Structure formats: C-alpha cells, structure tokens
Amino acid sequence: MAKSKKPPLGRRGFLKGAAAGAAALLAKPPVCKAQQAHAQRPTAPLPSARQVAFETAPPPAHADVYTTDRPGADFMVDVLKTLNFDYICANPGSSFRGLQESFINYGGNKDPEWLTCCHEESSVAIAHGYFKIAGKPLLIMAHGTVGLQHASMAIYNAYADRVPVYIILGNEQEINFRRGDVEWKHSVQDPASMVRDYTKWDDSPISLGHFAESAVRAYKIAMTPPMEPVVISANGQLQEEPMREEDRRRLRVPKLTLASPPAGDSGAVLEAAKMLVAAENPVIVAGRAARTPHGLTLLVELAEALQAPVQDRRQRMNFPSRHPLYNSGSIPEADVILALEIADLWFTTHQQTPINRMGMINRSLIKPETKLITITAGDLFSRSNYQDFGRYAEVDLALAADAEATLPALIEACRKLITPDRKRAMEERGKRLAAQHQRNRDRDFDQAAFAWDASPISTARMAAELWNHIHKEDWSVVSDLNFVSNWPARLWDFDKYYQFIGGQGAYGIGYGAPAAVGAALANKKYGRLSVNIQCDGDLNYAPGVLWTAAHHRIPLLSIMHNNRAYHQEMMYLQDMANRAQRHPDQAHIGTAITDPDINYAMMAKAYGMYSAGPIDNPNDLGPAIKTAIEVVKRGEPALIDVVTQPR
Amino acid sequence: MKLHALVFLFMAPLLAAADQGPTGSAANGKILFTKIGCFECHGYAGQGGGAGARIAPTPLRAQDLIRYVRRPPGAMPAYTEKVASDQELTDIYAYLKSLPPPKPVKDIPLLEKMKTRQ
Description:
The complex is a heterodimer.
Chain A: H1 9-17, H2 19-26, H3 33-38, H4 49-56, H5 72-81, E1 87-90, H6 97-106, E2 113-116, H7 120-134, E3 139-143, H8 144-160, E4 166-171, H9 180-185, E5 201-203, H10 208-222, E6 230-235, H11 236-240, H12 245-250, H13 266-278, E7 282-286, H14 293-306, E8 310-312, E9 336-340, H15 345-349, E10 350-354, E11 360-364, E12 371-376, E13 397-400, H16 403-417, H17 420-448, H18 459-470, E14 475-477, H19 487-491, H20 512-524, E15 529-535, H21 536-539, H22 545-551, E16 556-561, H23 567-579, H24 600-606, E17 610-615, H25 618-633, E18 637-642
Helix pairs in contact in A: 5-6, 5-10, 7-8, 7-20, 13-16, 14-16, 18-25
Chain B: H1 2-20, H2 26-35, H3 38-42, H4 62-70, H5 86-98, H6 109-116
Helix pairs in contact in B: 2-5, 4-5
C-alpha cells in the first residue's frame, strides 16, 4: 500500500486549528542571550517571547484546539492487549507518548501494567529475566534512535539466549510531526536496522491495519523456536492522529495462533535412539534444552531410560542437581554425545590452551570414533554478522529441531529399542555414575571448607549461609552463578524449573540486576523467594533498576558478590602482562573498583530499598540474610552488600 | 622391593636437601600473593575457585612450585624470572605453607547439615 501524500483528515484539521500557533513557531522569534546559550543543549527550549505572550496575554476571541476521543494509539492498545502481555517496561520517550497515554488512560494501565524503568537496557533485561520464569514475553517501549541504542546490548543478550523480547519502537516518520531538533535527532528512516543483526523480525507499519497484522505476526515469530527478539516501529503520526471513521468500522485484530515447535524428523530420531541405546558410555550435554518445566521432566526421563549422565551447561534449569546422573560421566570417555540446544558444542569437545598472544592450541577431547548427535533449533535460524553461532561443529547426526519438542519421540524410540541385556548394562552404568556423582558431591563439600572463615568472605561460605535461610522457602535463584564458582549449584538441591534461569546469553554485563528484577516480578504472583547473587560490576551499569524494584514493590533478595573489580578483565590484564613479562602488579589499573570502595548498601538505600552491609566478617552474614528475608517476605526488595573473595 | 628400598635410602638425603631449598618469608609472600595477582584466580587464601585450582595447603615442594609457575602447561600465564624472582616465589610458597588446613566438613555444622540433608 502506497503511503498517501495527503495528510490525513485529523492532521489537516489540527493544522488549520493551530495555524496561528504554528506560524508563530516557524517564524524566527527574537531570543534573549540566555536562550541562545541554551540553544546548543539537548534540552527542552525555553518558551519564546511570543509563546510567553500567548500564555500571559488576554486570550483571543477564538482559537481552534486539537482534540480527539479516539487516537490511533487506542487501536494499537487494543491490538497489543490481545497478545496478553503482563507488563510494559519503558523509560519514557516522546516518540511513544501517544501510546503511553493510551495504555494508561484508555487501557487502564492494566494487562499490561506500565513499569517505570531508568534505562532501556534495564527494560529489555527485565523482560529477559521475566520470560525465563513466566514463559511469556513482556512488552518493551523504546524511544526512537537513542532508546533503541540504549537497549541494543540487552537485545543482543536476549537474542543469544533464545529469549523473545517484544519491542515497540516509537518513531516520528512523518517530518511534519517532528517537534523541533530533538525529534529530528531521535527519528530514523529504517528504525530496526541498528538491531536487525540480532533480532528475528521487524517491521515499520504505515497504517493501523498494517500495525495490527505486523504486531500479531511479530509475536508469533518471536514465540516460535528458536525464540528471539522482534521489533515493531510505532509511527508517531499513527499513534497521535484520530482514527478515521472508515478505519473505526473496518479495523480488526488478526487471530493469533502460535506455531507448534519444530520436532525432529522421525527417521533421524530413530537413528539417534539406536546410537544412544547401543552406546557404552553415552553423555547428554544440555544447554538451553529445557524451555519449559516439562523440558526438565523429559530430560530426566531420557537420562533415566538410558542411565546416561547429563552434563548441564546451566544455561537453563535442565536437570536436578542432586540427581545421581547429574554432571557425571566423561566427555573424553564418551562413545556417543547427545548435545541438546548447545551453541558452543565445539568448546565441549575441544580444549584450548593459550600458548602465546597470537594464537591457541586446540586439542580434541574426544576419541576419533566418538559419535556426535545434535538437536537444536539453532540450525533453523542463523545470522552472519554477529558470531554467536560459535565454531562449526563436525557432527554425525544433526536434527534441526527444538530439543524439548523432540524429546518425547526420542524417549519413546529409546524405550522400544532397549533389550533386557541393554537394560542390565545400563543399570550397571547407572550405579557407576551414581557413585561418581556422590564422589563429586563429597569433593565439593570438602572444597567448600577451604577459606570458610576468610575475609573477604568466600563465595562457598556465602552460598552456604544463603542456603541455611532459604532452603525451607519456595526459592528461585534469579542470577547466573558462574562468577561465584557455581557454588549454589554444587551445594544446593536444585530440582524445580523455576529455581534457576541461566545467564546473560551473550555474556553482556549489565544483564544481572535487571534480569533478576524481571524474574522476581514473574515469581511474585507465586509467592516465591527470589534470590539474586549480584555482581558489583554488573550493578554499576544501570543501578536505577533498584529504584524500579523498590517503586513497584518487587520482592527480591540481592546478595552482592562485591569483589570490588571487573574481575574477569583483571585476570585477562594480568595474563597479558605476564605474557609480555612486565608488571603483573598493575592489573588493577582500569579493572579494580576501589578507591573509593562503593558502598552498595548506601546505594540501595538511596534508591529506597532496605539494605545492610558492607559485610566482610562471615559470621555476620547469616543474621543479615535472616533479617533481609523478613523484608522480602513482606513484599519488598532488599540488598546485602557482601565483600567477597574474587570467585 | 629390596631394590626400591635401597634406592630410597640412597636418595633420601638428597630429597630432604632439595625440599629444604631457599628459605621464604611467609609475610612477604602474603603481600606478593596479592600484588602479583595470584589471588585473582586462586583466591586470597589459595582456596581456588572457578578460575584457578586450590593451591593451599600446597602438597608441592618449593622447587616444584617454582618450576610449575615458570612453565605452566595449562591456562595459567607463566611467571618468568623477569616478573617474579625465585626468592619471591619462595616467599609465596612459604605463605601457602603457612596457611592452616581447613576444618573437616563434619566440624563445620552448617556444611555438615547441608551435606547430610536428603
């Protein structure tokens, strides 16, 4: 449909009514020196002398005003409400002011409810965390060029983590609607181009009917595995202009029918089952295998049917941490490896040893005869620019399919192939693996005893003190655990899907705090105790999310892993210095977050949140956690600043 | 067996002498352990973590530790003589040796409670 060159009726009416005012604004008014000084700043201009006169002089006998009882944004709200979003995450922006007003006043600020966010990166990461608990995307509103630029890193994280994020991007496409220089700077010809490399689909509708169809299509695309972010541009003119009479009669919201996830081809499934059942030492490696709670159940069924170990990459809550088949087995000894939704399989089957600053030695960890089977929806969707797809993996059988959707057929096929002899062999294997699991567990507890009374507090001690106060609650860990040596996963009993949500996706720092808030928001209606082990470097990207949690009464216990550094980078810097054989004592420059130390308890308090700390005596930690949990159970967020060992 | 015993008797004084090696300062070793970045991967108490192995209490002899850090076979960056002298590494060794062994899990009530909970 060609874009009409004629301004719509509503717009024409507005221009007629506002002719005098517009003419006044277009004419170059005399400005005082103070106004000239402000003219270069990206702030709202001071009112001109003429505008001041309008508002202070006696009013004219007649002035047309621009009003409507049915802006286009109302219909957009009708459309978006059918997609069943619970919340909208947004930092305010003029390019979606029409939609914001309609959501609040026409939509009643309910289903979805507006969340005030302090940064678009926070908006997206909140939605990222929310999805991994609720299984539903949130709606993000982002403002033109600058808002999407702010959001972009978090969108990339969601993309790499296979999380659907639904973004409505305000944009003033019609030049006559742009209010001054600010809106020219914030408008863009091809809005989604800056994130197109790491979104699944986008569109810039030019009519309300177009918006309706694209909005529903975008949701369907986002929710079909591999699930990914989508962007729909909401033209400011469409939002703010009155709906035309003929539009009111004919506009409708298309029906949404989600596509069933792609399951593996039956022949390939049977072949995979034959290889797995015949294997003497199969290993299952799980990445984002469990998309839903049912995925965890299915993976347990498959592992138990085969008595095969599951090595969990902890990108989702794939497998119970105390199950005898959890994290046992051996990749080098495996004869068949089944990789479920693994983006970095090459790094599972290879070891890299840095030898100098220019290259690496790569060594295969597996035997030449080991068979590799992959099941991943990642084979169905690739982009070329960003390299999140990882190194090419040479495999023997590749199922381009969603792992969770394929598991029922694979389990059934395996069960049919298991003979009594194979069953006996598998049971013997299961006993060996259970013993290995127990040895691993004993080793972890022995290891946790080291530095038990140290200050800064060991991350094992912090995990243990946390467990002591939450294990009788219905808890949910809403943060990644890699930066604390995975201690909770090694010491606690994770057995429910919502007890862990994985990590950033693209390892983009700044995800942690907002994702935890989003996941906690999703846990809120179930009364779960959300626990966030919060890295200090991560929190400093956009700490305003603490205010969002306090303002919206989102119950969340945050325990700072305050090692006072961007520690990963400190290690890299020291590595480089050692290789150059100079000054390994300078690795703190540009990486340490000290002098002054940041007091995160004071930061949280400033944002209106209960807080305690900084705590560096391990004996003080337990009582502080107990008190903070009481606050969280009252429905509020709380933060404890804990000064910790590096990892 | 007899041959092995004879070899051991012959070698024992040499091993003992080698184990004594140069004397290190645990106090200076503690400072160096932080200053040159050992703590970054191994923790301030050498307890290890996600990025590095537990190295305290160390079962190695001083010269073994020095030989390892000069030419580590794994991911650890090498500490050549230009960035850490033998004496400095010996001081670090003395610090690691000075660290007390951990209490057994059964003597840490919280850990024991976690471990035995089914």
